[in-house]
What does this fold into?
Amino acid sequence: MELVVASNNAGKIREYRDILEPMGFQVFSQDEKQVHIEVEETGTTFEENALLKAQAVYDRTGCCVISDDSGLSVDALNGEPGIYSARYQGLATEHERRLAILKGLEGAKNRKAKFVCCICYIDETGEHHLFTGVWPGVIADHEEGTNGFGYDPIFISEDAKGKTTASLPISFKEQYSHRAKAVRQLMDYLKQHR
Ligand code: IMP
It folds into this structure.
């Protein structure tokens, strides 16, 4: 069965291909299916945005689809940057966005935060299924480490013994992260239903 990953990010496509091909799917990127659209993320939650992206691709291809949406939510910043993680405060670089979080938390006692990843799977009947992984932690008081991407240098997950995600090996993230948790839920679902 054909499945389109609603993205053109090569890393993301490869990751999903590794998971989904053993489940019997033939995996395509949006480009490979000639779907040249940039879906406007107008939802107010990760779930809504993941569904918007998946539905747009399903409507144009009629194939099974996988999409995801993820980000960092900081308690003391009223859940920001949340769904705006990739474009927080309109800042151009990941480094600037990390500094904005650190500045926003200056003097804050509560540094709790969580990464969230929502995967949307649309099956061959057009029905959608949502899988959300949450990774709780705190925001560090300075950047540390070079592994990973995005907010990894300032995020200390509750299972990381005080180290930022970016200071730990990638294998740690592959096992414990919000994305790993959502992917496990998706795989459990597919194992039961396919
Ligand atoms: P998207 O879901 O790929 O659009 O990612 C949204 C944004 O959330 C990214 O640009 C990052 O800023 C942030 N983000 C999502 N997942 C992670 C992660 O695992 N580590 C660090 N930042 C992340």
